[in-house]
UniProtKB/TrEMBL annotation, chain A:
Record's protein name: Glutathione import ATP-binding protein GsiA
Pfam families: ABC_tran (PF00005), oligo_HPY (PF08352)
Species of provenance: Candidatus Thiodiazotropha endolucinida
SMART domains, sorted: AAA
PANTHER family named among the record's database cross-references: D,D-DIPEPTIDE TRANSPORT ATP-BINDING PROTEIN DDPF-RELATED (PTHR43776:SF7), TRANSPORT ATP-BINDING PROTEIN (PTHR43776)
Domain of life (superkingdom): Bacteria
Lineage: Bacteria, Pseudomonadati, Pseudomonadota, Gammaproteobacteria, Chromatiales
UniProtKB/TrEMBL annotation, chain B:
PANTHER family: D,D-DIPEPTIDE TRANSPORT SYSTEM PERMEASE PROTEIN DDPC-RELATED, OLIGOPEPTIDE TRANSPORT SYSTEM PERMEASE PROTEIN APPC
Record SUPFAM superfamilies: MetI-like
Organism: Candidatus Thiodiazotropha endolucinida
Cellular component per GO, a single term: plasma membrane
Record key words, sorted: Cell membrane, Membrane, Transmembrane, Transmembrane helix, Transport
Transmembrane segments: 20-46, 66-84, 96-113, 189-214, 226-245, 251-269, 308-334, 354-374
Gene name for this UniProt entry: oppC
Name of the protein this chain belongs to: Oligopeptide transport system permease protein OppC
Domain ABC transmembrane type-1, residue spans: 187-375
Cell compartments where the protein resides: Cell membrane
Entry-linked Pfam families: BPD_transp_1
Biological processes annotated in GO: transmembrane transport
């Protein structure tokens, strides 16, 4: 065994309470194997990795015990837990390397990528000459398939894309030929097509060097693509380990079963919405353009336009859910805000039930806003931290004259909270007291408070764990049916699209490249880009 | 769960709670609190006139006859503050009530409070020594700040507690006035100039910075140029010029310090507004069709106030220092004592009299230090990464 962790405990002391971040965790990783740790946020996956690396914050550590036997090639086995800091530094980066989720903040912005890899190389191979070390840097960049490594080696981190930065991080980790690579959610911040390439790259490198990978993720799709064996963590405990195939298809532990069942791929399918062809579409976009001027120089002259939304024609039938998918930067969020005129369209028309929104003046628009609402991605920033939930919910009602007095509005707010399955005493509390999923429910209640007929849902479940996501989606479908809502559902998660939407539109570089019934788009995409996108999505075989 | 119990969770209560968990901030607040009390009750703490006396069976309070309109105003402000504190209304409303009460009180005070014009400091002491009164209650420091003992043949420059009969705790200055009494009365100037000057600067900074941040574009460009122009003005030299032209006045000083130090606040508010503009909850407020004032004052301003308050507590400290510097240069107020001016006196006398430098200097140091401590803790409390109760 390359690494065997036995009875690892990592406890923290926080405000007089003991938090068992890692509790009695034991697992083993063989040479050349990929072991995936999966679990929801706060389950202790990252802390387990940091415990192995001995990189824990010392200040509030309460208990850190256990054996971490590491048996590198041509070396005697050691217990990492017993090593001194100086000895551990030899292991870190040399025998065990680590890559992180956010490639921008893990690279130093003031050095070129070549200099940063060179530093790592020189630290671990001091015997190499300047030329040899530099050669090694170039080789490592070639190994991670960075295009044109001879010139790229001199670029700074900000000159590279997210995927390229992650490649550089991997090159840096690989430069010292580690026996174990710990990857902490390395693809979470990347688009699916880039993610597929990075995962492929890691597999290739692993086959070439026979290193082991400890891969931390929350995404079962990714697990299916890369893992040989899987460990499922829940609240600091490793509840189940096994082969990937076995965990996905025959999970033993009840928590694993619940997790797998909550995947959007496994949720009971949405009944197809019956077509009512005679009805007018609720939202109709014609040749909608949203351009952002690029200004330069002293006089701030417009030198170029960023065409975020570039001539979009789209219809959303009343009572349907239209999913808008696309990679980051494709303009889907801008389009969503453009429909609500939160971002002013440059040209084109947005018709809402025959009323042209683009022609309204400020005060007309403000009155009209009660018919269309938005729910945001980030549950942290979407609620004003200074206002109580009661104030957040009733404020807009008051402006639009809903409810006769404050008591009546509070009563409505209470009812809304009930609909999103929140307790009544939520009203008098403040946003910081709630979890991400709860805040998202409050965000939904706020959107519903004006009784709108159209809601833009902008990546509302991307920041949530799968089980919470499943609950929110189920609730949203119920509310849709109850209130007869029309939704524009912006997302990048194809599983969610399949579960929730009636129709799908695919966006690429500001244009809609394909639209149609969700079934058709997902199973029989006709556009080339859509085909690539669908193929790149890591799927859990059902 | 009752409504008031839950109220305690609100953001500002949390921030203040976290600020004053820290010992530095508590000590700072304690010192500022003591200073404020001393400032409010200065005429009763240090005065040559007895607080109470009984003359042929009639009880009188001579100190009341000599109260200035300003003294009355300070007392009214203090009492209003005490009454308002437990009242459950918003901070803004409290502030407005406070302002209107002060305006009315100022009007009445200047119309009706007529202090006795002829001031003879020795009057009551002489009469008391002659045994005219049944009993007399003196102030804790029984000398007024301008009660110059040298006029009656005392030497002045007495060291602290050097004489048995007329004990001066902090000694006397060259004219024979009591140093402690002068310090007590000067604490008002220190506090007043700090709060008023910073208040003016904050008001200007928030309005201009807010406009720049919310509207951006041309407004922002023009605003930033204005900020740069004002940042280039050296406050001290402008103050010197104004003193030369318009004479020495506390109010001019406050205004000048105020209108030269707003750019810092404007920059903070602008940056915060630019950030908040993109926040989802502001977008949500806009999407809900809320009117502009509500978006600006309910959703953006309270969330952007953190850095401004931190800057303000440092600003108070630097305004106090500016006044002290000016007074030390001999360009402060003509007649009224201030800490800086007392330091100036200490330097000018032929011999080094430690008590004249140590006490006012120490007071300036402690006050500036106290505000800096509060500012430091406030900054830590607002920074989510450093928060003590996660």
């Amino acid at each position: 065994m390359l690494l065997s962790v036995k009875q690892l405990h990592t406890w923290f002391q926080h405000q007089g309470r003991t938090i068992k971040a890692v509790d009695e965790v034991s697992f083993e990783i063989a040479r050349g194997e990929t072991f995936c740790l999966v679990g929801e946020s706060g389950s202790g996956k990252s802390i387990t990795a940091l415990s192995i690396m001995q990189l824990l914050p010392k200040s509030n550590l309460k208990r850190h015990t256990g054996e971490i036997h590491f048996h590198a090639q041509d070396e005697a086995p050691v217990d990492l837990a017993g090593l001194s800091e100086a000895e551990m530094q030899q292991v870190r980066g040399g025998r065990i390397a680590m890559i992180f989720q956010e490639p921008m903040s893990s690279l130093n912005p003031v050095f070129t990528i070549g200099e940063q890899i060179l530093e790592a190389v020189r630290l671990h191979f001091p015997e190499l000459s300047e030329g040899e070390a530099w050669q090694r840097v170039l080789e490592s960049l070639e190994a991670v398939q960075l295009p044109d490594p001879q010139t790229r080696v001199h670029s700074f981190p900000h000159q590279l894309s997210g995927g390229q930065r992650q490649r550089v991080m991997i090159a840096m980790a690989m430069a010292c030929e580690p026996d174990l690579l710990i990857a902490d959610e390395p693809t979470t911040a990347l688009d699916v097509t880039v993610q597929r390439e990075i995962l492929r790259l890691m597999k290739t490198l692993q086959q070439r060097t026979s290193m082991a990978i400890l891969f931390i993720t929350h995404d079962f799709g990714v697990v299916c693509q890369i893992a040989d064996r899987v460990g499922v963590m829940q609240r600091g405990k490793l509840v189940e380990t096994g082969d990937t195939e076995q965990i996905i298809h025959r999970p033993g532990h009840s928590y694993t079963q619940a997790l797998i069942a909550a995947l959007p791929e496994n949720l009971a399918r949405n009944q197809p919405h019956e077509q009512r062809a005679d009805q007018m579409p609720l939202i109709r976009l014609s040749r909608l353009e949203i351009h952002f001027p690029v200004r330069k120089g002293l006089l701030r002259r417009v030198v170029d336009q960023v065409r975020a939304v570039d001539g979009v024609d789209l219809e959303i039938p009343r009572g349907e859910i239209l999913a808008l998918v696309g990679e980051s930067g494709s303009g889907k969020t801008t389009l969503g805000r453009g429909i609500l005129r939160l971002t002013e369209p440059t040209a084109g028309r947005v018709a809402f039930d025959d009323t042209d929104i683009t022609e309204m003046n400020r005060s007309q628009l403000r009155r009209f806003r009660r018919h269309m609402q938005i729910i945001f991605q980030d549950p942290i920033s979407s609620l004003n931290p200074r206002l109580s939930i009661a104030a957040i919910l009733t404020e807009a009602m008051k402006v639009h004259g809903i409810g006769e007095n404050q008591e009546a509005r509070i009563e409505i707010a209470r009812d809304l909270l009930d609909q999103v399955q929140m307790e009544e005493d939520t009203l008098w509390r403040y946003p910081h007291e709630f979890s991400g999923g709860q805040r998202q429910r409050i965000g939904i209640a706020r959107a519903l408070s004006l009784n709108p007929s159209f809601i833009v849902c902008d990546e509302i479940t991307s920041a949530l764990d799968v089980s919470v996501q499943a609950e929110i989606l189920r609730m949203l479908l119920d509310l849709r049916a109850k209130h007869g809502l029309t939704l524009l559902f912006i997302t990048h998660n194809i599983g969610v699209v399949e579960y929730v939407s009636d129709r799908t539109a695919v966006m690429y570089q500001g244009k809609i490249v394909e639209q149609g019934r969700t079934e058709d788009i997902v199973n029989r995409p006709s556009n080339r880009y859509t085909q690539q996108l669908i193929a790149a999505v890591p799927r859990v075989p059902v | 769960m009752s409504r008031t119990a839950k109220r305690r969770q609100s953001y500002w209560r949390r921030i203040l709670g976290q600020t004053f968990i820290r010992w530095g901030a508590r000590l700072g607040l304690l010192w500022v609190g003591i200073l404020a009390l001393v400032g409010v009750f200065a005429p009763f703490l240090a005065s040559s006139f007895p607080l109470l006396l009984s003359h042929e069976g009639v009880i009188r309070s001579p100190v009341l006859n000599y109260l200035q309109p300003v003294d009355v105003l300070f007392l009214v402000a203090f009492i209003t503050l005490l009454l308002l504190y437990p009242w459950q209304i918003t901070l803004l409303r409290k502030f407005l009530i406070m302002l209107s009460v002060l305006a009315v009180a100022a009007l009445f005070a200047y119309l009706w409070v007529k202090p006795q014009q002829l001031v003879i400091y020795e009057q009551y002491r002489v009469a008391d020594a002659a045994g005219e009164y049944d009993w007399v209650v003196y102030a804790p420091v029984p000398f007024s700040p301008k009660d110059y003992q040298r006029d009656r043949g005392d030497t002045g420059l007495e060291a602290p507690l050097s004489q048995q009969s007329r004990a001066h705790w902090f000694g006397t200055e060259q004219n024979g006035a009591d140093v402690l009494s002068r310090m007590v009365h000067a604490s008002r100037i220190a506090l007043g100039i700090g709060f008023v000057a910073t208040g003016i600067a904050m008001l200007l900074g928030i309005i201009i910075g807010g406009l720049m941040g919310y509207f951006s574009g041309v407004v922002d460009i023009l605003g930033m140029r204005l900020v740069e122009i004002f940042e280039a003005v050296p406050t001290l030299f402008l103050l010197l010029t104004f003193v030369a032209f318009f004479g020495r006045s506390l109010y001019i000083m406050m205004v000048i310090i105020g209108i030269t130090s707003w750019p810092g606040y404007a920059r903070y508010v602008r940056a915060e507004f630019l950030r908040l503009r993109k926040q989802d909850f502001v977008q949500a407020a806009e999407a809900a069709g809320l009117p502009l004032p509500s978006i600006l004052f309910r959703h953006m301003l309270p969330n952007g106030m953190g850095p401004v308050l931190v800057a303000a507590s440092f600003g108070v400290a630097s305004a106090i220092l500016a006044e002290a510097t000016l007074s030390f240069l001999g360009l402060g107020l003509v007649d009224d004592p201030s800490w800086g001016e007392m330091l100036n006196q200490a330097v000018q006398s032929s011999r080094f009299n430690w008590w004249m430098a140590a006490f006012p200097g120490g007071a300036i140091f402690l006050t500036v230090f106290a505000y800096n401590l509060i500012g430091e803790s406030l900054r830590d409390a607002i920074d989510p990464y450093l928060s003590k109760s996660g």
